[in-house]
Amino acid sequence: MNSPNNAVSDIYRYALEKVDFYRSGYPSVDSVVNFSDVPFLSRKQTLENVNMLLSDEYRSYPLSKTITVERSLGKTGEYLKTLWSADDYTASLGILDKYRKDWHRVGKGSKQLRFHTALYQGNMIVSNKQIVVEDGIMSIYCFAMNRENAPDISRQIMEFAPDCLVAPPSIAFQMARLFTCMNLPLPESLKYIELTGEESGEEAINLIQSTFHVRPVNLYSVKGLGGIAFECSSGSLHVLKENVFVEIVKDGKPVFGEEGEIVVTTLTNHAMPLIRYKTGDVGILSNAPCPCGCSSPVLEIKVGRKCALHLLEDGNFVSEYSLKSIIEHANENISCAIAQARFAWVSEGSISVILQLKPSYYGWDTAAIAEFLNNVPCIIFSLVFEFVFSSNYGHLT
Ligand SMILES: [Zn+2]
């Protein structure tokens, strides 16, 4: 097989040897001429074959203690659990840390401000504590960021004096809007802002920059694959080539310098290796030289996951990112019965929650509603939820 590099052929060979999904039906390394002849993996296939995509060593999940689980609703609202070995997960984060240090001088000793949607112990949700400070990281529960708590949160942030903020754009945007509206002090210690998990959008970027006086950098990542591309000090989003192999695909063929779907192959996740995974995002890859000196291709994202923030009648804000997290957590307690979820705003104070259950969970409507409401934080109690169940499995759009 002609392969872009050794790491790509190594992970493909590993997947063929160790993973049922690829073992049954994927072409052998010898029978494939080019890596670009290997089939694509869609999100739908991934959802339907989660267990088949686990490699032999990690089949014992959830008994294995060395597994890290990531949950995501993604752009399509389809619930996907991806698994990592703890060692691979750490290695993947390590690659990103190296670039944070090289490009932005953010080292391990930096004081970070982050946001969480729930706290996990192992892979179980243990609490929704509002603020936790541990190992130089202050982590704030994203739903705690409301008008009532904001003065106390601001005071604690000022005392902590973080130098880094790492957040989804909608949460950083929400914090900037709330603190600005309420005239609350902001930490001048902040030197670095990293936005990840969604496409930032110009309005969010501008407000975050003018509020914190720091130009944010973007990290493009996908659950199960980790960091895919990271913004350098010159503002280019470079592919993290030690972590992933990225292709842009147009009409089924890889292209360079043209717009197409972003397709990613992991080089680090051996527990659930995703090979030629179609992200559903659209971008362009180019080899234009970058003033930073990094030779890794530059990715320009054209269509990604939108950052969406809504103003409620009581003056608070809620992001779609946070709402999705309610589904992710509720699903854990009902055997992941929810296959797909969407939100549609009816008015400022009312939202339609459109849920689709897996066919084998027919009749679980009441349990799904109860578990969703059970996970709704008090900050958005003023929001009225209307539940709609879609029976057209696999076609919720
Ligand atoms: Zn660069």
Radius of gyration of CA atoms, rounded to a whole number: 21 Å
Q: Determine the N-to-C terminus distance.
A: 38 Å
Mean pLDDT value: 87
Strand order of the largest sheet: 6-7-3-8-9-10-11-12
Fold-level CATH name of the domain at 309-389: GMP Synthetase, Chain A, domain 3
Strand content: 25-35%
What ligand species are in this complex? zinc ion
CATH class of the domain at 309-389: Alpha Beta
Helical content (DSSP H or I, runs of 4+)? 25-40%
Walkthrough of the structure:
With 397 residues, this protein is α+β, with helices and mostly antiparallel strands. It has a domain at 309-389: GMP Synthetase, Chain A, domain 3. It contains nine helices and 22 strands. An eight-stranded mixed sheet has the order 6-7-3-8-9-10-11-12, with helices on both faces. It has a five-stranded antiparallel sheet with strand order 14-13-15-16-17, with no helix packed on it. Helix 6 (169-181) crosses helix 7 (202-212) and helix 8 packs across helix 9 (365-374). Residues 232, 234, 236, 238, 290, 292, 294 line the site of zinc ion (ZN).
Please give a handful of descriptors for the protein shown.
397 residues; alpha+beta; GMP Synthetase, Chain A, domain 3; eight-stranded mixed sheet; five-stranded antiparallel sheet; 30% strand; globular; binds zinc ion
Layout: helices, strands, pairs:
Layout: H1 6-18, H2 20-23, H3 43-48, E1 67-72, E2 80-85, H4 86-104, E3 112-116, E4 119-121, E5 124-127, E6 131-134, E7 137-141, H5 150-160, E8 164-167, H6 169-181, E9 192-196, H7 202-212, E10 217-222, E11 226-231, E12 237-239, E13 244-250, E14 253-255, E15 260-266, E16 277-286, E17 298-303, E18 309-311, E19 317-319, H8 320-332, E20 338-347, E21 350-357, H9 365-374, E22 384-389
Parallel strand pairs: 3-7, 3-8, 8-9, 9-10, 21-22
Antiparallel strand pairs: 1-2, 4-5, 6-7, 10-11, 11-12, 13-14, 13-15, 15-16, 16-17, 18-19, 20-21
The structure holds zinc ion.
